[in-house]
Amino acid sequence: MLATLGKRLATAIPTLIGVVIVTFLLTRVLPGDPAVYFAGPAATPQSIAEVRKSLGLDRPLPEQFLRYVGDLAHGDLGNSLSTGQPVVKELRSRLPASAELTLSGLLLSLVIAVPLGVLAAVRQGSWIDHICRIVATAGVSLPVFFTGLLLVYIFYFVLGWAPSPVGRLDAFATAPPSITGFYLFDSLLARDFESFRAALSQLILPAVTLAVFSLAPIARMTRASMLAVLSSDFVRTARASGLATRTVIVTYAFRNAMLPVITTLGMVFSFLLGANVLVEKVFAWPGIGSYAVEALIASDFAPVQGFVLAMAILYVALNLAIDVLYGVIDPRVRVDG
Amino acid sequence: MASRRIPRREFLKSVSAVAAGAAIGTPAVWSAQAQSRRETLLLITENGPNNLDIHGVGTNRPGYEASWNCYDRLIRNAKKTLPDGSTSYDRDKYEMELAEDMNIGDMSATFKLKKNAKFQDGTPVTANDVKWSFERAISVGGFPTVQMKAGTLIKKEQFVAVDDSTFRVDFIKKDRLTIPDLAVIVPGIYNAALLKKHATEKDPWALDYTKSNTAGSGAYRVTSWKPGVETVYERNDAWAGGKLPALKKIIWRTIPSSGNRRALMERGDADISFDLPAKDFSEMKKEGKLKLVSNPIGNGMYSLELNVAKPPFNNEKVRQAVAYAIPYQKIVAAAMFGIARPLFGGPSNDVTTADWPQPSGYSTDIAKAKALMKQSGAGPIDTTISFDLGDAVNSEPIAILIQESLAQIGIKTTINKVPGSNWRSEMTKKMMPMMINFFSGWLDYPEYFFFWCYSGQNAIFNTPSYVNKDMDAFIDGARAAAAAGDKAKYAKDVEGFISKAWHEVPRVPLFQPYLNVAMQKNISGYSYWFHRQVDYRSIVKG
Questions:
Q1: Domain A93-288, what fold?
Q2: Looking at the partner chain, which of B33, B253, B256 has a beta carbon nearest the beta carbon of A281?
Q3: Contacts of A159 (CB under 8 A, 6+ apart)
């Protein structure tokens, strides 16, 4: 198992090298001149040149690249100009915020979509099937920023049930001591139930926004996959053997229907990381997506490179985890390099 | 909040204290929290600082606000009440901040420092700190150095520490802008001894340290800064620069979505929302739930700028035709929701006052524009009209209205939206034939505006690339007259350069925009400042 894992990891290395080269080049061909941008108002050609020199942008490209790779080897992703902080530090503090949000959204979506999909498949054509179709269509056709703003308008502005959309915590609350970076876990570990409640109440609306967006693919995939499995030979055999419907559906059909759902889940997770950017903007969530977008707007190279690199590593890890999960769910699938 | 929570945790641990603690502890805790909210300001804006020090590389506008409130200057502008009842800085009057006395001589100005002035680490502020700070401002390059230069503060030898509490600025030449330039954000006083400790060979001015730490004697210091999320300030109770501010704590949150900023204000969850879009401002004003203040941005002008270095706008008649074809009223009404001061429809292009900004003689007159196009001899024109996407809220509707109107006089335009990060580099190239742009100068003097936007030095802000000897003579004349105190000559030169600019119209003046602020009704003491950021020191809640 370990050997296959190692082999699988080794294949990821060329991908990462490629990502490093491509992001470096991409950020350099982007329109916009960071030196001009950061020279600020009242810039003169001379002051722009001074800024360019202090950013090291006056050196030839290969030299800039070598320096970038060298820093990377030391775990240094450079400094962000727009926030003024080391990129590594920023990513470390912002990644948990995004991960907490994305995972909550995904979990919420799973809890709703999988049972919905299974029921829709078992009672094909019934009212629950129609509900599944309507929910899925509505969820996928509403843009996330719209859902987010609508939820804020209804639950915060009109009804006043949700807390103000000001990020992970209310302005007057203090963050729990950072252990995992996930406020929900950290506040529980610190037995600070008030912070837990505060963090949870801030998390609900953005997580629901993401969940609404991701319901559709999961529910539809669960339904389709369940339908295929339910009409297969071994389910017919199980039914013919007089097994209880519950046993047939849960033990035999569901487990076999899960493989494509897991694959979809991996894809949905990556969509969600993308959709996150907008949700983070709407809810002032201090996540990695809004960070990268702001950096891109300011032609701030270092955070964009850091972001892409972090995402690439995340995807490689995610794919690996899904491959391993295949083996757990269905022992016939082998993880090969 | 922390102080409230820790006792509660400890008290949960000690079971025996539960009954007594619950009965006595809770009400005290709640009133303490209410007290702290009364002394805490929650400020929300679209963007937060990227650097707490204005001397840093690429510090953004919100960063100026941190510098303004955490560092002191020798002097600051006094305040005055405007006719509409709002408060503004007074361009012509100064009060003392770190200096207790200012003595302006013929070729120098001498400042006595306040004896009780201390940095926030407790060390006294000395003339050497002032000297070091000014040397820092003229040495770090980029924006701070340019700003110092605007007041002819260029050489280290100009700054003299006479003794521990006496500091002198020597003038290289007489310049009316030297003293005003000492009251802007850039010449703040930094704790030299502390910063020298943090300096390195690569970073001799300790810019890395001041990026995320405040090292001044100002009324506030930053106690927590999460870039892009939140900046928290606490009051410096030993502040010597003025009356102790009322607010103990400022929490400044970044809320990117303008709809959410508005919702937070209308639900009463935030105290001040700064720099509102005109649309939100006019709608909130109608609703009447909040206190809304709006001030014209001093020395600021939105204009349509025409590149005079290239055809078709090298033809003066074409430029005048454009100026007559602009739907001015519609722009102010539809794009700015009426929240703008018109800079058109004046009596004549030959101006008779030195007021600035003042309206041009142009107003919408399509027939006249068509006649001018005919006289110009220019054929049908096909060109582009560019604007900064970062300012799309204002610029996009303006661009569409102008496009529509210019089509009537045979000028076909395509709209070119330039991403915010690109705008400055596009401006430096000076290739855009026609663009919508905004410029405002900190120092509120017409010759300062013209020096940047119309003079032959062809600075980045002279986007039309307008170079004209007579114009330069007027600008230089006005600067010299101002330095010499020759009021008549000054007025004549200012009227001269404004009239010339209106006649030859390399930039078509549109309007002077407003800076809009919304606050809860219990907030008072807000003042408009030339730097267009919030000064927390005068704000009162309650």
A1: MetI-like fold (1.10.3720)
A2: B256
A3: none
